[in-house]
């Protein structure tokens, strides 16, 4: 399912227009992104937790040449599924 299909499904389930559903989905994604980027955790009980973590700088190896390379520190997104979401996948 891509974003367009998700918008269509949301519009049908919420009995609203696709334009309104698109706006809501974009607002949802932007809100989670901004909150996680600021270092706060977003918890949707039963569904998931969105967070960000700082990954330390480290050394890696180029698999083609076996050359050692430096990998810089980075902030990475973390998604953890909630218990109800995991159980729904069984």
Structural notes for this entry:
The protein is an alpha+beta fold and 90 residues long. The protein has a single domain (3-88), classed as IHF-like DNA-binding proteins (HU Protein, Chain A), CATH 4.10.520.10. It is 42% helix and 30% strand. β1 (42-44) and β2 (48-55) form a beta hairpin. α1 (3-14) crosses α2 (18-37).
Task: Provide the descriptors you would attach to this structure in a database record.
3-stranded antiparallel sheet, HU Protein, Chain A, 90 residues, elongated
| Classification by helices and strands | alpha+beta
Calculate the terminal CA-CA distance, rounded to whole Å: 19 Å
Task: Label the CATH architecture.
Answer: Irregular
- Report the biggest beta sheet as strand number plus sense, adding barrel if it closes: 3 strands, antiparallel
Give the class-level CATH name. Answer: Few Secondary Structures
Mean pLDDT equals 94
CATH superfamily placement: IHF-like DNA-binding proteins
List the helices and strands in order.
HHEEEEEH
Helical proportion? 40-55%
Number of domains: 1
